[in-house]
Design goal:
The complex is a heterotrimer. In chain B, about 75% of the residues lie in helices and about 5% in strands. Chain B contains twelve helices and two strands; from the N terminus they run ααααββαααααααα. The relative contact order of chain B is 0.19. Classes of the chains: A alpha/beta, B mainly alpha, C mainly alpha. Chain B: Belongs to the binding-protein-dependent transport system permease family. LivHM subfamily.
Chain lengths: ~425, ~290, ~350
């Protein structure tokens, strides 16, 4: 009996203790509030750690700059814009969790972000499910037709198509492609394949490389054996960028390289000692070296480094993020509300803003953007030369080839050039 | 596929596998610790090398700095953390995982997501119709040199004798007056230094970032698994065999098949020879001695 | 033996399950969704507690069965959408498949005399094989039926579970996961205190001696490993239905390590501890990630190091014992745990 009494007392004590602990804990975790009457909450999902932080941090900083500038000009609808920006850690599962948190708990009005196409595809269904306005501000493999999604980066018809035309005309028909082995690389490679065919070239080799590969000697000997006139590199992530150093030593630097992601996105021209990145051709919507020729770019680059003096580069994805937020802000002002349907309607009115490299305009049918494109190359000292400028290139493949017209035919699908 | 390109591929694969694995093999073989921070040790070596090379130190000395720096850091980590875990193999998994998280994110915070690299030194030579990077050939020589160094450390020095004794039977070694804790610390430090050396050696051939080490992880684990507990015999044998397998698969079918081939090899070896190549060799020696 | 005694562990378990059962009444729907994710991941920890904590099989490969379950469910249900009762059937078959895969692997390992750290290494390799393989399935060649495996992008739009007319989302899904967790938790508790359970612990403590007693050690090991595989597969399926999504990163080295870390840091010989620590860890890690702090991973890493250094038996188990001593005047020291097991074995 006595024993039972003691343990009863113990249990009571224990329960009280537990109760105190629980209360203390719940006191600590203050719950966050959604957009209130004084602020507008904008969600941002970017990788600030892990493999993709190289670009993610640039984009995060560009978003901070954009929001700062909006707030300096009085905010939106008389309210201050606040960024709600978790770190997605280059992990698609974290992307999903954080997207749900931003939507369901923090009640943000729109979400910007994602770097890799895999991350975008991980969260896009969540956006669709929850009717959340989503901006993917990144160059990508193209083909996404989704009413809730706006894509402000460059697409293949703005990058790969003009680039391949230029390369084949200038250097010759034999093309070899190496690409990261996931959807971005696979679909981009399909675009290369299609462009090569249209421009009378010949694809002499195509290779997909797993994302964790960092040693390229066999790939290099295969490329050399195929004797291409042009080498297309669509490599992603830190491991794969080791290719260039190895190609410079074991490969054939006289073969020109072409890419839609390098230089302007992951600034290899500054990360590798010359002449590793020499003789590379890239089409891009923006890169910081354009500031020598375009005053808009200079203003943007200067503002960026004034706010983030320790950053190493500001490239095309940072500009896309910045432009995405500016377009959204303009649409909110036009719609006079942050309500999703009204903002989408305002965006679909073909809203346009004057970006760092000229006007950026929403194409209502496809939810992509019409923008100026630049073809640049690197000289033997890895300095950027501007070869060509394409004015107001339309992202019209979806609307012309696939008959996409989002305001009229709502859908959520990603088309591929060789698929359906 | 020509023989010369296969040869070239083998030279690359062999040196990569050996150098990726050697530090891990020392720590696993001698201490039975699965060091999940191995990739981060390699990455630190690459950072130290790159930073000092940019500061004007000749590359070869920078690489030595990388090895020594990581060796010292390994010693500190051992004294602070690992030494409390001797004999707790599986707990070391958790701790080294924690260490790898701290180091990787710490480097991101301190140095940002990228660092300007140094370019690969020494040009290239043409031989039998294909181009070889001289540095790659040098790496091959260095990987053999590293194995030889390992042989010297563990077979020809007093420390080596003590450490082998400790590895075989810690209790008896201790009762014979060997300071086993010091032996373990030294071993961990040597393993870390080898990882640092690897990082330094590969720094001029790859992009420098906090995730630098992840490119080595799979290969290093596979090599150690196939090799077994003895870092010297195991690593050199498995580096050779896996190098051949990988280079043949890689040159004939592509990178992906090379990777899968490595992994399947590893699974087969554990199933057929759970103690790895070194286990087989040791058994063979024991049998021979008995006869 | 233990059931009769009032111990912190049992009270805490009862309190937690009680709290979990009533909490959807007063927390918002997002939190419910979130907790159901944490609970789904708890099965993975339970599977490792069973095979590592109780049977002494150190596996890095629970992620393998997690991924197999998730992918199998995705491919099956997406191919047969519209078929009635396909989702619960997919769940059931997926769990069986996970168990079967684990049994086959276990059969080869344990009957082949592979044990201890080598099991860890072989399962680690298998994880890496699957992660490499699934990562390169982005091409159109990799379709199973109408479902593209999707490579690094993974598979999206995996249907949620449906029990007859009830779609398991939101609170329904939460209660579904919770009830399964509760049932499995109780079963595991009962099982490990049964006679077979004692044999399993005996295998952990000494394989040779257990064999001498006439137990078929490899058989028991394979069966326990299969049960662990089934649990991990269940976890994978629940995860896939939670996010409607599965990727090769389910097989990645980090995914393979996390269960080991959770179970080791929480207390690997204790089911309650591993559930609690899993939920706390995911909650805390998510909070850190949401805060966007660049120190998140550093803090997480430091915590793991400190826990392993200073509370080697696991933080939750340590707290249990501390509280036992404080409130119930039991002179329970860490070593007593093992004695208790021995004692149980004799009685059991």
């Amino acid at each position: 009996m006595k024993l039972k009494k003691i343990s009863f007392k113990g249990v009571t004590l224990f329960l009280i203790f537990t109760l105190i602990m629980v209360l203390a804990l719940s006191g600590c975790s203050g719950s966050s509030q959604g957009s209130n009457s004084k602020t507008i909450k904008l969600g941002l999902l970017e990788d600030r750690s892990g493999d993709f932080s190289l670009v993610g941090i640039q984009k995060y900083h560009a978003a901070e700059l954009a929001v700062d500038q909006i707030n300096q000009q009085g905010g939106l609808l008389g309210k201050k814009v606040v960024l709600d920006a978790p770190d997605t850690q280059s992990n698609n599962s974290v992307y999903q969790q954080m997207a749900k948190k931003l939507i369901l708990q923090d009640h943000v009005v729109a979400i910007m972000g994602a770097y890799s196409s895999a991350s975008r595809e991980a969260i896009r269904p969540i956006m669709d499910q929850n009717k959340m306005l989503y901006f993917y501000n990144n160059q990508y493999e193209g083909g996404v037709a989704d009413n809730d999604t706006f894509l402000t980066g460059a697409v293949p018809e703005q990058q790969i198509v003009p680039l391949m035309k230029y390369m084949i005309k200038k250097f010759g028909p034999r093309v070899y492609t190496i690409a990261a082995d996931y959807n971005f690389g696979q679909i981009s490679a399909q675009w290369v394949q299609q462009s090569v065919k249209q421009d009378g070239g010949k694809l002499v080799g195509q290779e997909f490389i797993p994302l964790d590969v960092s040693q390229f000697s066999s790939t290099i000997s295969r490329i050399k054996a195929a004797k291409p006139d042009v080498l297309v590199t669509l490599l992603i992530g830190q491991n794969q960028s080791a290719f260039y150093e190895q190609w410079a030593k074991q490969g054939d630097k006289s073969i020109p390289m072409a890419s839609s992601v390098n230089l302007a996105q992951t600034y290899e021209q500054l990360r590798f000692a010359p002449p590793t990145m020499a003789n590379m051709y890239v089409t891009t919507s923006f890169m910081q070296e354009l500031d020598t020729k375009y005053p808009g770019a200079k203003t943007f680059v200067d503002a960026f480094y004034k706010k983030f003096p320790h950053d190493k580069y500001v490239g095309q994805e940072a500009e896309a993020e910045y432009s995405g937020i500016m377009l959204w802000a303009k649409a909110v002002q036009k719609a006079k509300t942050t309500d999703r349907d009204a903002v989408i309607k305002a965006l679909e009115s073909g809203i346009s803003y004057n970006g760092p490299t000229g006007p950026v305009t929403i194409d209502p049918k496809t939810h992509h953007v019409i923008r100026n494109m630049f073809l640049v190359n690197t000289d033997s000292k890895q300095k950027i030369q501007i070869d060509a400028e394409y004015k107001a290139v339309k992202p019209d493949w979806l609307s012309t080839a696939k008959g996409v017209d989002l305001p009229k035919k709502p859908q959520s699908h990603q088309y591929t050039p060789l698929g359906n | 596929m020509s023989l010369s390109s296969l040869m070239n591929q083998f030279i690359n694969d062999f040196s990569f596998l050996i150098l990726a694995a050697i530090g891990l093999a020392v720590i696993f073989g001698m201490m039975k610790i699965i060091n999940l921070a191995h990739g981060e040790f390699i990455m630190l070596g690459a950072y130290i090398t790159t930073l000092s090379a940019q500061a004007g130190v000749p590359l070869i000395i920078s690489i030595v700095f990388g090895a020594i720096g990581v060796g010292i850091m390994g010693y500190l980590i051992d004294r602070l953390i690992i030494c409390r875990l001797y004999g707790r193999t599986l707990d070391s998994v958790v701790v080294t995982w924690g260490i790898s998280m701290v180091i990787q994110q710490g480097m991101l915070i301190i140095f940002g997501p990228s660092l300007q690299g140094v370019s690969t030194p020494l040009g290239s030579v043409s031989f039998a119709g294909s181009t070889y990077s001289v540095y790659r050939i040098l790496l091959f020589a260095i990987s053999i040199g590293a194995l030889f160094l390992l042989y010297l450390i563990f077979m020809k020095t007093k420390f080596g004798l003590y450490s082998r004794a400790t590895m075989q039977n810690q209790e008896i070694a201790r009762s014979m007056g060997v300071n086993t804790n010091r032996i373990y610390s030294m071993t961990f430090s040597i393993g870390a230094a080898f990882a640092g050396l690897t990082g330094g050696l590969y720094a001029p051939t790859m992009a420098i970032s906090p995730t630098f080490g992840t490119g080595f992880l799979m290969q290093s684990f596979v090599t150690v698994i196939v090799g077994g507990a003895n870092p010297l015999i195991g690593t050199s044998l498995s580096g050779g065999v896996l190098g051949i397998v990988n280079s043949i698969l890689d040159t004939t079918w592509g990178t992906f098949f090379g990777e899968i081939g490595l992994l399947i090899c590893a699974i087969l070896v554990i199933r057929l020879l759970p103690l790895g190549f070194s286990g087989v060799v040791e058994k063979w020696f024991v049998r021979k001695r008995r006869m | 033996m233990v059931q009769g005694k009032i111990k912190t562990e049992n009270i805490v378990a009862a309190l937690i399950f009680f709290f979990l059962f009533i909490c959807p009444l007063f927390i918002d729907s997002y939190s419910v969704l979130n907790i159901s994710y944490f609970l789904s991941m708890a099965f993975l920890s339970l599977s490792l507690t069973l095979i590592w904590g109780y049977c002494g099989i150190f596996s890095f490969g629970q992620a393998v069965f997690f991924g197999i379950g998730g992918y199998f469910y995705a491919v099956l249900t997406l191919n047969l959408t519209g078929t009635s009762a396909i989702t619960p059937l997919g769940l059931l078959l997926g769990v069986i498949l996970g168990g079967l895969a684990a049994w086959i692997l276990g059969y080869f390992m344990f009957y082949g005399g592979v044990n201890d750290v080598f099991v860890g290494l072989i399962t680690l390799c298998l994880t890496l094989v699957l992660s490499t393989f699934m990562g390169q399935t982005a091409g159109s060649a990799w379709n199973i039926g109408q479902v593209s495996l999707g490579g690094f992008n993974g598979i999206n739009g995996i249907p949620a579970l449906e029990l007859g007319p009830i779609s398991l989302s939101g609170n329904n899904f939460y209660y579904f996961v919770l009830i399964i967790l509760f049932v499995i938790y109780c079963l595991l508790k009962l099982f490990t205190h049964s006679k077979v359970g004692a044999a399993i612990v005996a295998i952990r403590e000494n394989r040779e001696r257990t064999k001498m007693f006439g137990y078929n050690v490899p058989k028991i090991q394979s069966l326990v490993f299969a049960a662990g595989g089934a649990l991990a597969s269940l976890s994978g399926i629940l995860y896939a239905t939670w996010g409607n999504y599965i990727t090769p990163s389910a097989f990645a080295l980090s995914s393979a390590t996390i269960p080991v870390v959770l179970v080791a840091a929480g207390g690997r010989k204790n089911f309650t501890a591993s559930i609690i620590f899993t939920v706390l860890y995911y909650w805390f890690a998510q909070g850190l990630s949401a805060s966007g702090s660049q120190y998140a991973l550093v803090i997480l890493g430091l915590i793991l190091i400190l826990v392993t250094l200073f509370v080697p038996d696991g933080i939750i188990v340590f707290l249990f014992h501390l509280s036992d001593r404080l409130f119930f005047h039991r002179e329970s020291k860490m070593k007593e745990v093992q004695e208790e097991h021995l004692h149980e074995k004799n009685i059991g």
